[in-house]
Amino acid sequence: MPGRTPREKFLRISVMLVVAAVLVQMFLVVRLIVFINGYIVSQQMQSEGAAIRVAMNALPATLFLLRGKVMQLPKQEFHVWQGIALLAIVCVVALKLSPSTTVVDRIALYAIPLQLFVGSRVPDLHLFKLDTRWLTAAVVVLAAAVQFVWLAFAKTAFAWLPYQNILFAL
After folding, report:
1. CA angle at residue 126 from 120 to 130, to 5 degrees?
2. Cβ neighbours for 97, distance < 8 A, ≥ 6 positions apart
3. Residue among 121, 122, 115 nearest 60 (CA)
4. Per-residue model confidence as pLDDT tens digits over 109-153
5. pLDDT of 122
6. How would you classify residue 53: left for phi > 0, otherwise alpha for psi between -120 and 50, otherwise beta?
7. Which DSSP letter does residue 20 get?
8. Domain ranges (residues) in the chain
9. Residue, of 65 and 162, whose pLDDT is higher
10. Residue 97 to residues 58, 60, 78, 132, Cα–Cα distance (Å)
11. How far apart are CA 44 and CA 39, in angstroms?
12. What residues contact residue 67 under an 8 Å CB cut-off, 6+ apart?
């Protein structure tokens, strides 16, 4: 803020902090209390597939943390993916410590893009000195297997198949 005295700057920042605190109190604190009561205090919220979804994030997170430097990403991008990978690992620990698997499951949703990022770059990781075509095929087969198992055996799979038609009739 050029041309302003330190006192004016301090007053403006103080007013902004007070307004921010009031807005947080009005809009976020009440909802946060509801979520804490619903997910943690009551312990009634349990997600059946939370462990599988967290594990699906943990594998690419581990790969990225061990071999991510090989990708030669720009520094800022590397730090973003590293943070997401660490979040995925923290979710593994939190799943064991938290009384509610649902809250961990909801947080783990933010790490799902890591599966796509690392999965699409598995050949760049130079794992096991395998040909990139074999690694790419392995990623595609793994993704297809996950989709098949989920759609064939999940209790809620019917809710994800709204477009039943003659081309895809079982």
Report:
1. 100
2. none
3. 115
4. 999 999 999 998 888 887 778 888 888 898 899 999 988 888 888
5. 87
6. alpha
7. H
8. 1-42, 43-168
9. 65
10. 16, 22, 29, 39
11. 7
12. 125, 126, 127
